[in-house]
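Support request, please re-run this one:
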Amino acid sequence: MGDIYRNAIRVIVWLGVDPNNEAEENFNLIQDTNTYLNEQLQEYRNVDAIPPIPHHDSIDAGLEKWDMVRRLMDSAWFSRVWVLQEIGLARSAVIYYGKTSMEWSHLVEFTLFMASRADIATRIGSVRSGMMWDLFEDVWCSFGNDITWRNELPFTRSLNKFGGLQSLIDILDVTRPYEATDQRDRIYAFLSHPVVAAGNSKAGKELFADYKKSLDEVYLEAAVRILETAKHPWTVLSSVDHKPNSPSLS
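Re-run finished. Output below.
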């Protein structure tokens, strides 16, 4: 599955229909804000050096206008665990909201700006920028792919430093809030992450998807792999949720 997204020319992020017919205005608001903030970034060289922003048409468009972005960020797509790897591996990605499209990198660029400048974020209200910052820094940057949407726009590119979470247990822990219809996919959704490939090499055997295995078998196999290959294997113990009568705890 990972090879599909790794080798795709472009990954499509489908956010569903546009019930309020607001996608075009929504995307224009995001892109206009990015254009202005990138002009400021080019002038001052550092996001923290940008002085307090005076009145600006897009930033000060009003909370009702920014509610469009909040509705966008409330899309069920952002709650799914599988999409984290799909986007992490993508060379390029485009959002489709109804019939309207925008480069995925614009949404990330915007949310990273908001997460970096609380003085601006307070003027537009919450747009889940903290969530996007954590995913970018901890998960997406850790994929380390050279050809990536993370290099398309200036501010995102400046933050795209290979690092992030370098342990499978850390990735599983930070992605706990995300949803999976089949709970085995909490493991299987990251089998194409570099830390899994490194673990396969170190352990001399592959961790792979097998839906014939029970949930307990999958979790136990993942825990054993972490204990065998992680730099700090004992950290797996801090992530244990006790489930009475679970065979994997016996």
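The chain has a mean pLDDT of 91. The first strand starts at residue 11 and ends at 14.
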